[in-house]
Structures are given as C-alpha cells and as structure tokens.
Amino acid sequence: EAGVAQSPRYKIIEKRQSVAFWCNPISGHATLYWYQQILGQGPKLLIQFQNNGVVDDSQLPKDRFSAERLKGVDSTLKIQPAKLEDSAVYLCASSLGIAGARNTGELFFGEGSRLTVL
Amino acid sequence: SQKIEQNSEALNIQEGKTATLTCNYTNYSPAYLQWYRQDPGRGPVFLLLIRENEKEKRKERLKVTFDTTLKQSLFHITASQPADSATYLCALDVDSGYALNFGKGTSLLVTP
C-alpha cells in the first residue's frame, strides 16, 4: 500500500516569496492533517480536514497560510508571503478518521517538506 | 492550556539495557495516548496506542503504561539496540477529540 506522498522534499526561498506544498494521502483516508515541525520541536497542528471540509484550523496563521483539499483527496498548503520563522518541516498526515469522533487511530505521516526561508 | 512534557535531555544508554522515556501532561483528559518514533529527516511512525482504561500495553520489546491519576505515560524499550536510536514522540488527542497534539520528543541514543 502506498504511503502519504509529499512534494517537494526541499525548498529554499527568500522572505516575502510564496511557496506551495502538495500532499497525497493514503487511499481511502478521510482525514488529512498538516503539521509544522520546527527544528528541535514536536509537530504542531496547522489544519485538519475531514474529506474536503475543515475541522480545525485554529492554529493556522491565516494572514499568510492557506490550505485546501479539493475533492477530498489531495491537499495543498500555501505560504504567502513567507517569513524567516516559517523555516520548518511541513508534515502531511492522514488517518481513516470518523467524522465527529475522537481520533482513535494512528496517523500516517509523509516524509515532510523542508522549507528554508532566507 | 494543554501541555505535554517529555524528557528534554537526550537519553544515552548502553545496548541491552532498558530505556525508559516519560510523558507528562496537564490540563488534559485524553481518551488515548500514542507513541511515535521519528528518525532524522523522516516523518513520525506510529508505535503504540493505549486507551485511558488500559494500564499497560506491550508490543514485542516495547511497553507503554498509562496512569491517568499521575497524568503520565512511561515508554519502555527492553533489550535496547543501536537501531532503536531515534526521537520518540508522545501524542494526545486534543479536547475536541479530532487531531493529535505532540510533545517535543525525547532523543534516545543506544551505544554498542
């Protein structure tokens, strides 16, 4: 079974530029998450989708970050304009997920997209 | 606010010994607690899930305990091997019950 696919693996940009990350979750997984992991820290949830609807985006800096999950499958995360403090690894994860229920299953993570903002 | 704390210091142990990692939490009433392993440059990989009504869970050389009174989970690796060297993350479901919040992780180094 194919895992969670993410691209690009690495991206270097100048501050104030924009960047987009793509994620393809495991087939059949209804729930998709974007996490930000700064060096030396644990993953921090940015946004969670259930199918193509947003469940939780309370920690997403909406003035510069946006995410969408069209057709309830692939997802993109965009940063515009980027700041130095956005340098991090952006992890996409998916789970089977049950709408309205507490998470009872494991999350499957992709390898992440490492962003460096200069 | 909800807080998850893991050993901030790296844990160095000798091959064959038992490694014990700690996860403490405050302002949480988790229904589940999960442990993940993360290798450098890779995404976290799920290891074990333990429910609030379970005291202990085992999987091969791994053992997890969950004490909801102490608000603590202990993660044990018995007969540790150099291949067990990695960062181990503790995660709890958020109050809304949807996603997971992660601790900072504890780095484990097993030397021959």
Q: How far apart, in Å, are the first and last alpha carbons of chain A? A: 37 Å
Order of helices and strands of chain A: EEEEEEEEEEE
Structural class label of chain B = mainly beta
* Ends distance of chain B: 41 Å
Q: Which parts of chain B are unreliable, with pLDDT below 50 for 5 consecutive residues or more?
A: none
Uncertain ranges of chain A: none
Helix-strand string of chain B: EEEEEEEEEEE
Assign a percent range to the helix content of chain A.
under 10%
Secondary-structure topology with pairs:
The complex is a heterodimer of chains A (118) and B (112).
Chain A: E1 5-7, E2 10-13, E3 19-24, E4 31-37, E5 44-50, E6 53-56, E7 65-68, E8 75-79, E9 88-95, E10 108-109, E11 113-117
Parallel strand pairs in A: 2-11
Antiparallel strand pairs in A: 1-3, 3-8, 4-5, 4-9, 5-6, 7-8, 9-10, 9-11
Chain B: E1 3-6, E2 11-14, E3 19-26, E4 32-38, E5 45-51, E6 56-59, E7 62-67, E8 72-77, E9 86-93, E10 100-102, E11 106-111
Parallel strand pairs in B: 2-11
Antiparallel strand pairs in B: 1-3, 3-8, 4-5, 4-9, 6-7, 7-8, 9-10, 9-11
Protein described:
The complex is a heterodimer of chains A (118) and B (112). Chain A has 118 residues and is mainly β. Chain A has strands at residues 5-7, 10-13, 19-24, 31-37, 44-50, 53-56, 65-68, 75-79, 88-95, 108-109, 113-117. In chain A, strands 2, 4, 5, 6, 9, 10 and 11 form a seven-stranded mixed β-sheet that branches. In chain A, strands 1-3-8-7 form a four-stranded antiparallel β-sheet, with no helix packed on it. In chain A, β5 (44-50) and β6 form a beta hairpin. Chain B has strands at 3-6, 11-14, 19-26, 32-38, 45-51, 56-59, 62-67, 72-77, 86-93, 100-102, 106-111. The radius of gyration of chain B is 13 Å and the shape is globular. In chain B, the strands form two sheets. In chain B, strands 2, 4, 5, 9, 10 and 11 form a six-stranded mixed β-sheet that branches. Chain B has a five-stranded antiparallel β-sheet with strand order 1-3-8-7-6, with no helix packed on it. In chain B, a hairpin with a 6-residue loop joins β4 and β5. The model of chain B has no long low-confidence stretch (mean pLDDT 92). In chain B, 35% of the residues are buried. Chain B is mainly β. The interface between A and B is medium-sized, with 28 and 25 residues.
